[in-house]
Amino acid sequence: MFAKSLSRRIAIASVGLILAAGTALAEDNVTFRVAYLPTANYLTTVRTTGILEEKLGKVGAKVEFIGPLDPFSAYNTVTAGNADASSTGTGYFVNLSAQKSPWVAFALEKYSGNSQGLVAAPGSGVNELKDLYGKKVGIDGEGATGDYILNLAFKQAGLDVSKVEKVTLDTTSFASAFASGQVAAIASYDQNLANAIATPGAKVLVTNDQLPSYNWSIHIVSRDFAEKHREALKAAYEGLVAESERAHKNPAIITDAYKEFGASDGLVKVVAGFDTPTILPLDEKAVADLNKLGAQYVEFGFIDKAPDIADYVVDLSK
């Protein structure tokens, strides 16, 4: 009897080990390919820490970093099937969702909003928002973050944004257009905002932490990867959470990333004053906030109909 019982326990234990091994290697041969941006969001900073390698390795998966790429190139890289994930702003994500794009969000990178704003150029004579009537304001594209900032600031102030001339600038043109007086102000974020603030004679008109803004950073992945490799994606999410915790203990992680991408000492000093982001799941609270953002996008004429963001997210906190 004892021998049979022992044999049975050994058999059960063996099955358990086999199942455990199968679980650990559930994502074996899966590579999480990240098209990262030249900015200090956590999907960029984590590439030098080994955190994603560790988290993904526990489920038998790997990570590959591709870049740095500008946001549009990163988007095209994923849609072409050459990468699985990237980062963007929540506004652009709402826009993509309204177009029924094959993306889902898996991590929200939330901050106060003081890294986004509207800054008047030196010598522009602009001291308040109303002074921008009839003047040119540089933005990063129709319906993009800068356009959102501009519309939101003018709405909050009870002003008519149609009286401003919007000028679309690419990433490399913001600094020169601002410094040379080609535009009276810029509405931008991160490096471009910091560079503008650091310019002698510039004046900050408003930052997004002073507005009812829902524009943050967000990490997105192809729906195909999310559906086929949830375990690997959850490991990636946990890696971003760990990177966020690391940055809160040592914010220099963020400024060091800006230095790596060529930021000047003056720019880095401004960036050091920006809020340190926190990684959060795409839970009911996040979905509600992004649906409010969608309503703002409709109000501002960026999209015709707001998408139901719940259809374009995966909550990895569950």
UniProtKB/TrEMBL annotation:
Keyword Signal: yes
Cell location: Periplasm
Keyword Methyltransferase: no
Pfam family, one: NMT1
Cellular component, GO, one term: periplasmic space
CDD domains (UniProt xref): PBP2_NrtA_SsuA_CpmA_like (cd01008)
Cleavable signal peptide: 1-26
Keywords: Signal
Family as reported in the entry's similarity comment: Belongs to the bacterial solute-binding protein SsuA/TauA family.
Name of protein: Sulfonate transport system substrate-binding protein
Species annotation: Kaistia hirudinis
